[in-house]
Amino acid sequence: MKNIIFISVLLFSFLAVNAQEHSEKSRKDRKAEKEAKKAEQIKTLLDDKFFVFNATHMMPMGGGSKYLNYDYDVTVKNDTVVSYLPFFGRAYHVEYGARNLGFDFTQPIEEYKKEKKDDGYLVELKVKNGMDQVNFSFHISELGYTTLNVNSTNRQAISYYGMIDKIEKDE
Fold first, then answer.
1. Residue span of the structural domain in which 137 resides
2. How far, in Å, CA of 109 to CA of 65, rounded?
3. Domain containing 88 — which CATH number?
4. pLDDT per residue rounded down to tens, the chain (171 residues)
5. Would residue 124 be called left, alpha or beta, if left means φ above 0 and alpha means ψ between -120 and 50 degrees?
6. Is 21 part of any domain?
7. Could you tell me if residue 128 is inside a domain?
8. C-alpha span between 143 and 147 (Å, rounded)
9. Nearest CA among 73, 53, 106, 85 for reference residue 155
10. How far apart are CA 123 and CA 128, in angstroms?
């Protein structure tokens, strides 16, 4: 009887240790699967030209980084850009009567280029907003972390940091 109890305890402890090792592997596997799924989603969004960039920080040329709330974004829908980004810096030319201080506009995309890089993607957009030519350069990691550089003919360059995500249905 003692041998049966001893063998049962030994078998139970072996199974418990084996199950614990299995759960560690599956956690790593789940993380790798989640990252692979996110990378595939980002690739699909960029191919379809249907994504939103949610800005969390901005870096003006003349100052330090500023935290932003999640209300600032750039939405790319096929051939249109809907930009709602703040601007801090020097403006070289402002149209008469302009009340729009940031990059706040909806315009058609003149040029869209997507290039695969070693660490992610480079997406470049060219948009004409009135007398201003605005170039958006998205440097996107495979998991969606993004740096957006905005160059304008009428303003200083500025950078934004945030995430690329899919567009929600209600937008």
1. 44-165
2. 28
3. 2.40.128.410
4. 667 776 766 666 666 655 555 556 688 888 888 989 999 999 999 999 999 999 999 998 877 889 887 789 999 998 999 999 988 887 777 766 666 667 889 999 999 999 998 889 999 999 998 888 999 999 999 999 999 999 999 889 999 999 999 988 654
5. beta
6. no
7. yes
8. 13
9. 85
10. 17
